[in-house]
Protein backbone atom coordinates (compact mmCIF):
# COMPACT_ATOMS: atom_id res chain seq x y z
CA UNK A 1 0.00 0.00 0.00
CA UNK A 2 1.11 3.52 -0.76
CA UNK A 3 1.41 5.85 2.19
CA UNK A 4 -0.81 8.32 0.36
CA UNK A 5 -3.89 6.13 0.11
CA UNK A 6 -5.48 2.86 1.16
CA UNK A 7 -7.30 0.50 -1.18
CA UNK A 8 -10.32 -0.87 0.61
CA UNK A 9 -12.34 -3.82 -0.66
CA UNK A 10 -13.84 -5.14 2.56
CA UNK A 11 -15.99 -3.56 5.27
CA UNK A 12 -13.99 -0.94 7.24
CA UNK A 13 -14.28 -2.93 10.49
CA UNK A 14 -12.10 -5.60 8.91
CA UNK A 15 -9.18 -3.18 9.08
CA UNK A 16 -9.70 -2.18 12.70
CA UNK A 17 -6.49 -3.70 14.05
CA UNK A 18 -4.25 -2.37 11.36
CA UNK A 19 -2.22 0.79 11.32
CA UNK A 20 -4.59 2.53 8.92
CA UNK A 21 -7.61 2.18 11.21
CA UNK A 22 -7.82 5.90 11.93
CA UNK A 23 -8.48 6.48 8.22
CA UNK A 24 -10.42 3.42 7.10
CA UNK A 25 -13.67 4.03 8.88
CA UNK A 26 -17.32 3.88 8.13
CA UNK A 27 -18.06 7.32 9.62
CA UNK A 28 -17.56 9.39 6.45
CA UNK A 29 -20.33 7.32 4.82
CA UNK A 30 -22.78 8.02 7.64
CA UNK A 31 -23.31 11.76 7.55
CA UNK A 32 -26.86 13.01 7.84
CA UNK A 33 -26.35 16.55 6.62
CA UNK A 34 -23.59 19.14 6.63
CA UNK A 35 -22.68 22.51 5.21
CA UNK A 36 -20.19 23.33 2.49
CA UNK A 37 -20.06 27.11 2.65
CA UNK A 38 -23.67 28.24 2.49
CA UNK A 39 -24.91 25.04 0.88
CA UNK A 40 -26.68 22.37 2.89
CA UNK A 41 -25.64 18.94 1.72
CA UNK A 42 -28.08 16.06 2.16
CA UNK A 43 -25.76 13.36 3.47
CA UNK A 44 -25.92 9.71 2.49
CA UNK A 45 -27.63 8.81 5.75
CA UNK A 46 -30.42 11.31 5.04
CA UNK A 47 -31.21 10.14 1.55
CA UNK A 48 -31.14 6.50 2.58
CA UNK A 49 -28.04 5.53 0.63
CA UNK A 50 -27.22 1.85 1.03
CA UNK A 51 -23.88 0.58 2.21
CA UNK A 52 -21.15 0.78 -0.42
CA UNK A 53 -20.43 -2.44 -2.28
CA UNK A 54 -17.04 -2.85 -0.65
CA UNK A 55 -15.92 -5.67 -2.94
CA UNK A 56 -15.94 -3.14 -5.80
CA UNK A 57 -13.12 -1.29 -3.98
CA UNK A 58 -12.73 2.31 -2.92
CA UNK A 59 -9.62 4.35 -2.27
CA UNK A 60 -9.38 6.28 0.97
CA UNK A 61 -7.03 9.25 0.87
CA UNK A 62 -4.59 8.94 3.74
CA UNK A 63 -5.76 12.16 5.33
CA UNK A 64 -3.89 11.35 8.55
CA UNK A 65 -0.72 12.01 6.57
CA UNK A 66 -1.75 14.57 3.95
CA UNK A 67 -4.71 16.82 4.66
CA UNK A 68 -7.59 17.00 2.22
CA UNK A 69 -6.63 20.64 1.63
CA UNK A 70 -3.38 19.42 0.15
CA UNK A 71 -4.97 16.52 -1.69
CA UNK A 72 -7.98 18.08 -3.42
CA UNK A 73 -6.75 20.15 -6.35
CA UNK A 74 -9.56 20.41 -8.85
CA UNK A 75 -13.29 20.11 -9.46
CA UNK A 76 -14.77 18.28 -12.44
CA UNK A 77 -18.33 19.08 -13.57
CA UNK A 78 -20.58 16.42 -15.15
CA UNK A 79 -24.16 15.88 -16.20
CA UNK A 80 -26.01 12.65 -15.39
CA UNK A 81 -27.21 12.32 -18.99
CA UNK A 82 -30.57 11.23 -17.54
CA UNK A 83 -33.37 12.62 -15.40
CA UNK A 84 -33.05 10.01 -12.64
CA UNK A 85 -32.68 10.54 -8.92
CA UNK A 86 -29.47 10.26 -6.94
CA UNK A 87 -30.53 6.79 -5.70
CA UNK A 88 -31.28 5.56 -9.19
CA UNK A 89 -28.00 6.89 -10.52
CA UNK A 90 -26.12 5.22 -7.68
CA UNK A 91 -27.94 1.94 -8.31
CA UNK A 92 -27.06 2.11 -11.98
CA UNK A 93 -23.40 2.82 -11.27
CA UNK A 94 -23.23 -0.01 -8.75
CA UNK A 95 -24.39 -2.48 -11.38
CA UNK A 96 -21.47 -1.30 -13.51
CA UNK A 97 -19.00 -2.24 -10.79
CA UNK A 98 -18.75 0.93 -8.71
CA UNK A 99 -18.75 0.72 -4.91
CA UNK A 100 -21.06 3.75 -4.67
CA UNK A 101 -21.97 6.80 -6.75
CA UNK A 102 -18.76 7.91 -8.44
CA UNK A 103 -19.38 11.65 -7.92
CA UNK A 104 -18.92 13.45 -4.61
CA UNK A 105 -21.94 15.72 -5.07
CA UNK A 106 -25.21 15.38 -6.99
CA UNK A 107 -27.17 18.56 -7.76
CA UNK A 108 -30.83 17.89 -8.37
CA UNK A 109 -32.75 19.92 -10.95
CA UNK A 110 -34.55 21.63 -8.02
CA UNK A 111 -31.21 22.86 -6.63
CA UNK A 112 -30.95 20.46 -3.69
CA UNK A 113 -27.50 18.96 -3.21
CA UNK A 114 -26.87 15.35 -2.24
CA UNK A 115 -23.68 13.75 -1.03
CA UNK A 116 -22.48 11.04 -3.40
CA UNK A 117 -19.28 9.69 -2.01
CA UNK A 118 -17.49 11.37 0.89
CA UNK A 119 -14.59 13.70 0.03
CA UNK A 120 -12.28 11.46 2.07
CA UNK A 121 -12.74 8.84 -0.65
CA UNK A 122 -11.29 9.21 -4.15
CA UNK A 123 -14.00 9.77 -6.75
CA UNK A 124 -14.66 7.59 -9.75
CA UNK A 125 -15.90 10.02 -12.37
CA UNK A 126 -13.08 11.65 -14.33
CA UNK A 127 -12.03 8.57 -16.28
CA UNK A 128 -9.14 6.21 -16.35
CA UNK A 129 -5.53 7.30 -16.24
CA UNK A 130 -3.10 7.06 -19.10
CA UNK A 131 -0.84 5.12 -16.77
CA UNK A 132 -1.84 2.64 -14.10
CA UNK A 133 -1.96 3.55 -10.43
CA UNK A 134 -4.15 5.74 -8.27
CA UNK A 135 -1.68 8.64 -8.29
CA UNK A 136 -1.81 8.77 -12.12
CA UNK A 137 -5.59 8.59 -12.18
CA UNK A 138 -7.41 11.79 -13.17
CA UNK A 139 -9.71 11.11 -10.21
CA UNK A 140 -6.83 11.65 -7.81
CA UNK A 141 -7.49 14.91 -5.96
CA UNK A 142 -10.53 15.61 -8.09
CA UNK A 143 -13.93 16.54 -6.65
CA UNK A 144 -16.75 15.25 -8.87
CA UNK A 145 -19.94 17.31 -9.11
CA UNK A 146 -22.77 16.05 -11.28
CA UNK A 147 -25.85 17.97 -12.39
CA UNK A 148 -29.02 15.98 -12.87
CA UNK A 149 -30.04 16.32 -16.51
CA UNK A 150 -28.88 15.93 -20.07
CA UNK A 151 -27.38 19.11 -21.47
CA UNK A 152 -26.21 17.82 -24.79
CA UNK A 153 -27.62 18.28 -28.27
CA UNK A 154 -29.56 15.56 -29.97
CA UNK A 155 -27.72 12.50 -28.71
CA UNK A 156 -30.95 11.08 -27.32
CA UNK A 157 -34.55 12.00 -26.62
CA UNK A 158 -34.03 13.53 -23.22
CA UNK A 159 -32.25 16.84 -23.23
CA UNK A 160 -32.58 20.36 -21.94
CA UNK A 161 -30.94 23.40 -23.41
CA UNK A 162 -30.18 24.99 -20.10
CA UNK A 163 -29.94 24.13 -16.44
CA UNK A 164 -32.43 25.51 -13.94
CA UNK A 165 -31.40 28.72 -12.23
CA UNK A 166 -31.64 27.04 -8.83
CA UNK A 167 -29.37 24.25 -10.01
CA UNK A 168 -26.76 26.67 -11.35
CA UNK A 169 -26.88 28.75 -8.17
CA UNK A 170 -26.31 25.61 -6.13
CA UNK A 171 -23.34 24.72 -8.36
CA UNK A 172 -21.81 28.16 -7.90
CA UNK A 173 -22.29 28.21 -4.14
CA UNK A 174 -21.02 24.66 -3.76
CA UNK A 175 -17.85 25.51 -5.71
CA UNK A 176 -17.38 28.69 -3.67
CA UNK A 177 -17.71 26.71 -0.45
CA UNK A 178 -15.28 24.03 -1.64
CA UNK A 179 -12.77 26.66 -2.76
CA UNK A 180 -12.87 28.34 0.62
CA UNK A 181 -12.58 25.17 2.61
CA UNK A 182 -10.08 23.24 0.49
CA UNK A 183 -8.34 25.98 -1.48
CA UNK A 184 -9.24 24.42 -4.83
CA UNK A 185 -8.21 26.58 -7.74
CA UNK A 186 -9.05 24.61 -10.85
CA UNK A 187 -12.46 24.01 -12.42
CA UNK A 188 -12.73 21.54 -15.28
CA UNK A 189 -15.45 19.95 -17.34
CA UNK A 190 -15.29 16.19 -17.82
CA UNK A 191 -14.64 16.71 -21.56
CA UNK A 192 -11.46 18.68 -20.71
CA UNK A 193 -9.86 16.10 -18.44
CA UNK A 194 -6.59 14.68 -19.66
CA UNK A 195 -7.24 10.95 -19.46
CA UNK A 196 -7.30 7.64 -21.28
CA UNK A 197 -10.36 6.05 -22.89
CA UNK A 198 -12.87 7.44 -25.37
CA UNK A 199 -13.69 11.17 -25.58
CA UNK A 200 -16.82 12.43 -23.84
CA UNK A 201 -19.16 15.36 -24.48
CA UNK A 202 -19.94 15.57 -20.76
CA UNK A 203 -21.29 17.88 -19.29
CA UNK A 204 -22.90 18.69 -22.65
CA UNK A 205 -22.69 21.56 -25.10
CA UNK A 206 -25.47 23.54 -23.44
CA UNK A 207 -23.85 23.44 -20.03
CA UNK A 208 -20.26 24.04 -21.20
CA UNK A 209 -20.51 27.82 -21.75
CA UNK A 210 -22.19 28.22 -18.37
CA UNK A 211 -19.33 26.38 -16.66
CA UNK A 212 -16.78 28.51 -18.53
CA UNK A 213 -18.60 31.67 -17.35
CA UNK A 214 -18.56 30.39 -13.81
CA UNK A 215 -14.86 29.61 -14.02
CA UNK A 216 -14.16 33.17 -15.14
CA UNK A 217 -16.48 34.69 -12.57
CA UNK A 218 -14.83 32.77 -9.73
CA UNK A 219 -11.31 33.39 -11.07
CA UNK A 220 -10.48 29.71 -11.30
CA UNK A 221 -8.01 28.01 -13.60
CA UNK A 222 -9.17 25.85 -16.47
CA UNK A 223 -7.32 23.15 -18.33
CA UNK A 224 -3.55 23.32 -18.01
ZN1 LIG B 1 -18.97 13.19 -16.98
TrEMBL record:
Matching SMART domains: Ami_2, PGRP
Secretion signal span: none
Boundaries of every Peptidoglycan recognition protein family domain copy: 39-194
Annotated CDD domains: PGRP
Gene Ontology biological-process entries: peptidoglycan catabolic process
Cross-referenced SUPFAM superfamilies: N-acetylmuramoyl-L-alanine amidase-like
A Pfam family this chain is assigned to: Amidase_2
Residues annotated as domain N-acetylmuramoyl-L-alanine amidase: 60-204
Domain of life: Bacteria
Cross-referenced InterPro entries: Amidase/PGRP_sf (IPR036505), Amidase_domain (IPR002502), PGRP (IPR015510), PGRP_domain_met/bac (IPR006619)
Gene Ontology molecular functions: N-acetylmuramoyl-L-alanine amidase activity; zinc ion binding
PANTHER family (UniProt xref): PEPTIDOGLYCAN RECOGNITION PROTEIN (PTHR11022), PEPTIDOGLYCAN-RECOGNITION PROTEIN LC-RELATED (PTHR11022:SF41)
Family that this chain belongs to: Belongs to the N-acetylmuramoyl-L-alanine amidase 2 family.
Protein name: N-acetylmuramoyl-L-alanine amidase-like, phage associated protein
